[in-house]
Amino acid sequence: MVDEGTAIDAPYVQGFIVPVPEGNQAAYRKAAIDMWEIMKDYGAKRVVEAWQDDVSHGKQTDFFRSVKAEQGEIVVFSFIEWESREACDGAHEKMMQDERMKGFEDEKPPFDGKRMVYGSFAPVVELTKQPVGA
């Protein structure tokens, strides 16, 4: 749905999953792109926002349970790449002070942020992309 920026070697990664009402795809995509415009100014290198396509309901755990998805909601999986943890940590407070963030306060969010699951991760293994046909 959204893939902005350029992948870098050994990024520090923030990831999250969030339930989004099926009818809010366009609003979610707009919010994601608007947020990217802010994040990239504070050092984010890449963002990927992926709309649910093939996600199964598990018997014990699954993406739906993790965010308490309700009827009519899908799960968005996203990650943001940063050069380092220091770059990521240093950007957070600056982004929160950015005037453009006020635009998010004025709009009704396209998802329930209270059910978002998120965290930050240091790379352990990274396989590089091989060109198609290589």
How would you describe what is shown here?
- 28% of the residues lie in helices and 26% in strands.
- The protein has one domain: 2-Layer Sandwich (Alpha-Beta Plaits), CATH 3.30.70.100.
- With 134 residues, the protein is α+β, with helices and mostly antiparallel strands.
- The mean pLDDT is 92.
Note the beta-strand portion. Answer: 25-35%
CATH architecture: 2-Layer Sandwich
The gyration radius over C-alpha positions equals: 16 Å
The main sheet comes to: 5 strands, antiparallel
Q: Counting H and I runs of at least 4 residues, what is the number of helices? A: 4
Question: What's the arrangement of secondary structure elements?
Answer:
Layout: E1 2-5, E2 12-21, H1 25-39, E3 46-51, H2 63-66, E4 73-82, H3 85-97, H4 102-106, E5 117-121
Antiparallel strand pairs: 1-3, 2-4, 2-5, 3-4
In a few lines, what is going on in this structure?
By secondary structure, this protein is of the alpha+beta class. It has one domain: Alpha-Beta Plaits. The chain contains 4 helices and 5 strands; from the N terminus they run ββαβαβααβ.
Highlighted features:
134 residues, alpha+beta, Alpha-Beta Plaits, five-stranded antiparallel β-sheet, 4 helices, 5 strands, 28% helix, globular, DUF1428, Dimeric_a/b-barrel, DUF1428 domain-containing protein
